[in-house]
Amino acid sequence: MQRAVIRGAGLPLEIVPVTAASLPVPRLGAVIEIHCAGVCHSDIHFIDDETDMGGGTVSRIRDDIGSDFLTFTPGHEISGRVLSLGNHVDARSCNISLGDRVVVYPWIGCRQCGVCKEGYNCMCSFNPNGVKDIGQSAQGGFATHCSVPEVQYLIKLHDSIPFDVGCMFACSGLTSYWSLERARPAVELASKCGRTPRLLIIGAGGLGTWCAQIARQLYGTHGINISVADIWQSKLDGLPAGATDQNILLSEDTKAVQDNAESIVFGAGKMDVIINFVGNPATTQTSLLCAARGAYIINVGLWGGAADISMVNLIGNSLTLAGVRTGPVHCLQELVDLYSKSPITPPNIVPYKLCEVNKALDDLRRGDIHGRGIIYMDMHSI
Ligand SMILES: [Zn+2]
Ligand SMILES: [Zn+2]
What we know:
There is one protein chain. The longest helix has 20 residues, at 163-182. The chain is globular, with a radius of gyration of 20 Å. By secondary structure, the chain is of the alpha/beta class. The chain starts with a strand and ends in a 6-residue tail after the last strand. The chain is built from twelve helices and 19 strands. The structure holds zinc ion (ZN) (2 copies). One zinc ion binds at residues 109-110, 112-113, 115-116, 124, 126.
């Protein structure tokens, strides 16, 4: 048993042995033998521990929690098999059994407050910096095993879903799904008014790939028109065939991005929904320029910084500006069910071994992973 541990902000993770005694089985939960763990940009934010809050302010988790930071194992996209179950798990009311193939819902929060008890743990107010979540604590997925405190946070994977695809549901898939659900009123209003709803996805990485295809499944009956924009032509070229109606290449230059935004607005039509998977000031301005009246702008990317927003524009155009941090547990189940019956092509997978976790993180920092980096705890299972 091994896990990769944070040894300092921005430093390589260290792989350390884990004893069975240090991984007790939670009374109402389970220990998972991990098969796969996805590598996410927010793992890098978490490890590097320097988030640009805008206005010259930087947020650091270690300032809040001190040396506990150096005990954490990142990794929140986790799939594997149930190795052991707690002695208070009620086998009659729970659909989880030993050996089941599962994806872990990691955004568990405090599990006690009203928000958590309603299943919206991802919005828990008692979870500063997300450190009560799985993968932002000692129990992350860059490890051979992890414990999950309650079996209600395990979602079964159908035998047809491989572990490497299944792990991605927990963050990149779920966040895309919930972003689209949050925007449902704008899609339905456009459709009711007799227009084709228009969706712009900013960022053609793993989340953008999920989002475009899930949008087609959720809103195909509304005839949704889907555009994906990115600064990398290679990432746009890597999107599955038929996933989008238009691909838009944006310039890296901020001024040119604004110019491109104008051409998007007038060339492709204003957008009813914009989902911003980058989240820097430039893409936020692009989102505002492209928004149709009544549009929903969903911000997901954690690039950071601050943006100037015209309040008159926001009000005059009846815009809804929302932030989405992952999604609730019932949406993870809905996503697994949707994937099982839909022709969705998962993002391209770049495989790594657990001992290569620092290479995976560095590749992601450099933007060299096209699709999703996945850590396989046992390379023979690829
Ligand atoms: Zn993530
Ligand atoms: Zn809570």
